[in-house]
């Protein structure tokens, strides 16, 4: 009797998982992102110069209304559009937790300074 209950519970769980996957596949077509999320589609690193690495990254985002693609904790993210419009880049919290953020003088980007003194500079296009 107890074995029968376990079998019915497993069958019910399997059907439930199938229904959830079916609904998910109907809502999100292949290649479509969920609202408020981003993914990196291209990453290029150039280390040809000593002590300097140039990295270029392209991200694809599906941002909600009032948001735009930006950077949070060194990863692509949807951020408030006013941050990008006013070029107050550090309000996105683009640096890692232990790094300090500073705006470039011409507001074309920001720098993230690590505790050891290493500086990462990011410019926005």
Automatic annotation (TrEMBL):
One of its GO terms (cellular component) is extracellular space. Keywords: Membrane, Signal, Transmembrane, Transmembrane helix. The chain crosses the membrane at residues 6-23. One of its GO terms (molecular function) is G protein-coupled receptor binding. One of its GO terms (biological process) is G protein-coupled receptor signaling pathway. Pfam families: TAFA. PANTHER family: CHEMOKINE-LIKE PROTEIN TAFA-5 (PTHR31878:SF0), CHEMOKINE-LIKE PROTEIN TAFA-5-RELATED (PTHR31878). Belongs to the TAFA family. This is TAFA chemokine like family member 5. The gene is TAFA5.
